Amino acid sequence: MLDKAFEALKTYDWGMDPKLIQPIDEAIVSTHGDAAARKDLESRLIAALQGEAPRAAKDAVCRALRTIGTAASVPALAALLADEKLSHMARYALQCIPAPEAEKALAEALSKVGGKLKIGVISSLGVRRSAAAVAPLQAPLADSDPVIARAAACALGTIGSPEANQALTAAKARPETKDAIADSMLECAENLLAAGKKQEAKAAYEKILSDSPSKAVKIAAERGAAACAGS
Amino acid sequence: MDKNKLTRRRFLKTTGAATAVLGFPTIIPSSALGNADTPPPSNRIVMGGIGIGNMGSGDQGAFLGKKDVQYVAVSDVRKKQLNAAKDRADKRYQNTDCKAYGDFRELLARPDIDAVHIATPDHWHAIMVIEACRAGKDVFCQKPETRTLREGPLMIEAAKRYGRVVSGGSQRVLEDYRGIVERCWRGDHGPIKSINVEVGPLSQPCNLPPETCPEDMDWEMWLGPAPWAPYNAKRCDGNFGTGGGSWRSYIDYSGGGMTDWGAHHFGGATFAVDVRELQPTDVILQNESGKKFLTFQYPNGIQITHNKPGRGNMNVEGTPGEKKEAKPVPKYAGQGGITGDFIECVKTRGTPFRNLESAVNTMAVCHLGIIAYTVGRSLKWDAAKQSFINDEEANRFLDRARREPWQI
Hints:
The complex is a heterodimer. Chain A is mainly alpha-helical. In chain A, about 70% of the residues lie in helices and about 0% in strands. Chain A is built from 14 helices and no strands. Chain A has helices at about 1-10, 20-30, 35-50, 55-70, 75-80, 85-95, 100-110, 115-130, 135-140, 145-160, 160-170, 180-195, 200-210, 215-230. Chain B is α/β, with parallel strands linked by helices. Chain B has helices spanning about 10-20, 55-65, 80-95, 105-110, 125-135, 150-160, 170-175, 180-185, 220-225, 235, 255-260, 260-270, 335-350, 355-375, 390-395, and strands spanning about 45-50, 70-75, 100, 115-120, 140, 165, 195, 280-290, 290-295, 305, 315, 380, 385-390. At the A-B interface, α4, α6, α8, α10 and α12 of A face loops of B.
């Protein structure tokens, strides 16, 4: 059954019955805890990803690698990050693979992709919440394209560490990026407050309030600053 | 006085200048001045609707029917639907003031709008709720409020951060299961041991063939954060089926019946046995006569089972003969069901009946169950850390990468 499914994967296109490749999903469940079987399954998925299979097939492979992908899958997935059609599905897997190689591949892709794809890579780095991602996110935070800069601000807010807060505090806010940076600083300030670092949190809230924030941000920062005043 | 509490009147005063600059309608309908039955605008909640198809049109009708709401804007990716929604609002007020937007972000950018209702497919909910909170809007979001486990806490954080009132949208939790809830809270069953929920199925992969996208539809915007796929009418149909031929059937947009009706049933069950503020610690996958079912173990000892053979939907197992202290059953605030509850809470800054925390906790049960069935094993859940214990693979299902340029 599994062999037939991998054979079907070679020509699997939109409109074909998902049951044709369902044995792959079943194999993922049945091989849990069996390292050798998983390694074999992953190798076959990587081969399919590197072959000439249609987009729908590679979409399905990325979904499977989201669950069982390891460092071994990273090169094949990373090669798709600059592919307009498959970049998202490559991230679908890479974002979930805990291996540091996945993080490194995403960080390296920052300088290789642009536009929407770059936003996607930035987003995935944020969701992984790695401290190591703060440094590579600082360049996009200063990007002349406000859409990229806002995405980097959002990712740094998701990371939410004191280091992310420092990067956001140091960023030169422009009218188009001001609220996104402030929103992420609010996230960081909440984390600082929760960690008992009231002075740092207060400084973040005061910085936000000094930058002529929008009404919604102003209310949020005032609430946060008030929380810092408590014992 | 807490200066952070923005009154309606102060809000209107401070946004008036911006509204004038942006050129929003200045024609004043007779109803705008207020009368014995209709409050003047300064006491009305200014609302807009996002995702205005099946459930969205129903919600729009409910809000249009409220005298303390001024409904001014709609957003949808289907022009016919969008125009029909605008027409409904215009007919209600006998003017042409309702603005129609293909992109919800334009609606959220309007400073005159106080609150929005959201009834898009589930894969959009988290982004829209969070963006609405960031824009300073209160939110009524249809169920299922979340599509992934990670989304819930982020939505709660955004609502808290910006001080927003956010209500979920399951009217059935209080209305359909009232009798069961009242018996449980009155103590008729004695201390509760468990309750069973019958619901399904899980959503499925979708690989429908490409079709020509109607000209009046923005397909890229419909897909939004979901993986790209070719247009097919059955992929995005808003009918309530979960067995194929509707977006509710497919993994990228919905959890299937498990989240769609699950939002109601598990919402009713968690309410009946009073665990709305909790999340399970264990999800136990069992097999009885070839039929898989789940037991959700709560930290207070109560269990919710899913599809346990031999038990019906909302079947309660109590402790007959033992006493349980009766408690009053929470109710909606205001008048007019769950939408009236939301409007009343917007005015009073109160907590809605289906507040976001309890909605997220309900949806967590659904998502935890889906993940256990998907990976085919029992799971231990750390609610404080929002992660599975000692199961790195299950943790990969906490969220999914969003298609660029969408992120939360």
